[in-house]
Amino acid sequence: MISRDLCKEAQERARAKAKNDTAPPSSTNSPDSSPMLSQNLPLVCLPSDLSDEAAAQLLEFLYELARTLENHYYAQLHRYYNASDEREAKRSDPSGPESDPPF
Phi, psi at residue 73, to the nearest 5°? Predict the structure, then answer.
């Protein structure tokens, strides 16, 4: 299991980087604005000292997780990507009724 210390260290590094990279002007410093932005935080804390075998096992686990999610949400993903394809086809097809002049 990944130690909490590694995650805490990563969060502290992200805070320090955010302060150095994007120091907001004091006039826009509201209670909601903080140098700690979500894009500066690591999604997960990964150990840097994994063995080759452990790295391969981790990757296999992630592939299996992705396959499981894809199977579980197949219908939703299918609807989403079909709708996305149809929207793209409408945008790229200038011969639709909206571009056809009435005369």
Answer: -105, 25
- DSSP, collapsed to helix, strand or coil, labels residue 12 as helix
Distance CA 63, CA 59 (A): 6
Residue that has been written with the tokens 């063995």 in this structure = 51
Residues 6+ apart with CB under 8 A from 22: 35, 37
What DSSP string describes 19-68? Answer: HHH----GGG--SS--S--GGGS-SS---S---HHHHHHHHHHHHHHHHH
How does residue 89 score in pLDDT terms, banded at 50, 70 and 90?
confident
For residue 77, give both structure tokens.
Answer: 């993903």
Report if pTM > 0.70.
no
Residue with tokens 């299996």, as numbered in its chain: 64
Confidence of residue 79 (pLDDT cuts 50, 70, 90): very high
Question: Rounded CA gap, 46 and 73, in Å?
Answer: 27
What confidence score (pLDDT) does residue 27 get? 47
